[in-house]
């Protein structure tokens, strides 16, 4: 039995057609959509290991392997790409700076987080998705999706401001093709927009000289560096709160894809958490960054309406190939930050609106003070990146915003319901 059925004739798509997760287009087109996912994840997935001190090629390798593992364990039904999680940057930096943790000790913390996420997935699998939905109803998942999309806005704007002309060309190309094209060009708008901005930067001499030097010096073939983790209790207070962040991100990813594609993905929540936790555990055990689903890749799916897991597989294989070829990785790394800013400005915006769509589909009551206070406060904290200092521990807005939404909302909801029940009796 084939892993994917061919959508239509595999070569043409009507304007509003949706390519389902178990479908694919012709392989040349599927490779093209996979390249969009590869480019969407590349900037952040290469930035995170540079900020945390882990080997770049190792993170690329384990990102690709983790994505393949995710697709396998979710039985090819949940399209995703697992890239390096930005949420870990500040906590790992704090653990290294305040607790003196070595890279091996930081990796031990990542392994611990992955194992706990797996345990949550096993519990959801055994006890049913209602276990998680009681804590993460649509009002919560919609807020997490919205917060993730908007919290990345400063990064996108910062990249855009680095090189405004190629950024504007990229943004304009993506917007015009998405809105005006009725053919495949509209579906491939992200890839075409990045290529347009990249080519302009090459012709205008706007590429970063240091990256060109790295490209010239990089060998065509090289083995990723593997690092063994070590368990240190001093790291755990800094990283264990991130369990809630990863769980929230994985669940929000499923809810976002379900809202966009019109598919019920609730039966795969447990599998997604198990496979996502396993991917993070594997990454931490060999020297890679913690892995999570990517906002930019959800944006690619929203823009193209292609949810084929075959495209995600292509991106994963591409990341693995790049991990063994520093030359190819350095070539893609020459894409200017402005170009990435122009592309992500669209993709992160699309993701934020998917959060609003989850609320609309669930008919969330915004006259309810519990919804208004908790959601509004947490989203603004996440978007504004309000960082809290608790002793030696620094908690970013995305982290404590997610934790606050997931933990505080059910408590306040229960208190409000108990108050209403008392008033009626």
Automatic annotation (TrEMBL):
Main localization, broad class: membrane
Membrane topology term: Multi-pass membrane protein
MF GO annotations: xanthine transmembrane transporter activity
Record bears the keyword Transmembrane helix: yes
Cellular location(s): Membrane
Keyword Nuclease tagged: no
Highest taxon of source: Bacteria
A Pfam family annotated for this UniProt entry: Xan_ur_permease
Residue stretches spanning the membrane: 47-73, 80-97, 103-123, 135-153, 165-181, 188-207, 227-248, 268-286, 306-325, 337-360, 372-388, 395-412
InterPro entries in the cross-refs: NCS2
Family label: Belongs to the nucleobase:cation symporter-2 (NCS2) (TC 2.A.40) family.
UniProt name for this protein: Nitrate reductase
Biological source species: Saccharopolyspora elongata
């Amino acid at each position: 039995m084939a892993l994917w059925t061919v959508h239509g004739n595999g070569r043409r798509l009507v304007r509003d057609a949706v390519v389902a997760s178990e479908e694919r287009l012709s392989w040349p087109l599927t490779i093209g959509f996979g390249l969009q996912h590869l480019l969407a994840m590349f900037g952040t997935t290469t930035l995170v290991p540079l900020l945390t001190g882990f080997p770049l090629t190792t993170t690329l390798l384990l990102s690709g392997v983790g994505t393949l593992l995710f697709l396998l364990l979710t039985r090819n039904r949940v399209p995703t790409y697992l890239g390096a999680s930005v949420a870990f940057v500040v906590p790992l930096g704090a653990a290294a700076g305040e607790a003196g943790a070595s890279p091996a000790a930081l990796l031990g913390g990542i392994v611990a987080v992955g194992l706990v996420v797996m345990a949550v997935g096993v519990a959801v699998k055994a006890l049913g998705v209602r276990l998680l939905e009681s804590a993460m109803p649509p009002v919560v998942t919609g807020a997490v999706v919205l917060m993730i999309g908007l919290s990345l806005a400063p990064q996108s704007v910062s990249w855009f401001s680095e090189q405004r002309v190629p950024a504007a060309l990229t943004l304009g190309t993506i917007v015009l093709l998405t809105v005006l094209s009725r053919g495949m060009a509209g579906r491939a708008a992200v890839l075409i927009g990045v290529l347009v901005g990249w080519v302009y930067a090459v012709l205008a001499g706007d590429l970063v000289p240091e990256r060109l030097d790295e490209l010239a010096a990089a060998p065509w073939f090289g083995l990723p560096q593997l690092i063994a983790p070590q368990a240190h209790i001093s790291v755990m207070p800094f990283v264990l709160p991130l369990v809630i962040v990863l769980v929230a991100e994985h669940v929000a990813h499923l809810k976002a894809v379900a809202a966009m594609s019109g598919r019920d993905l609730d039966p795969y929540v447990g599998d997604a958490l198990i496979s996502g936790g396993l991917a993070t555990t594997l990454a931490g055990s060999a020297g890679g960054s913690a892995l999570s689903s990517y906002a930019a890749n959800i944006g690619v799916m929203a823009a193209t309406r292609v949810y084929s897991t075959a495209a995600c597989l292509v991106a994963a294989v591409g990341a693995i190939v790049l991990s063994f070829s520093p030359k190819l990785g350095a070539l893609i790394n020459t894409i200017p930050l402005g170009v990435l800013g122009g592309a992500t400005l669209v993709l992160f915006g699309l993701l934020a609106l998917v959060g609003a769509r989850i609320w609309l589909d669930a008919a969330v009551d915004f006259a309810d003070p519990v919804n208004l206070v908790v959601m509004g406060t947490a989203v603004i904290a996440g978007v504004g990146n309000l960082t809290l200092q608790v002793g030696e521990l620094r908690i970013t807005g995305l982290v404590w915003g997610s934790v606050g939404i997931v933990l505080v909302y059910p408590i306040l909801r229960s208190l409000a319901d108990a108050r209403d029940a008392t008033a009626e009796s």
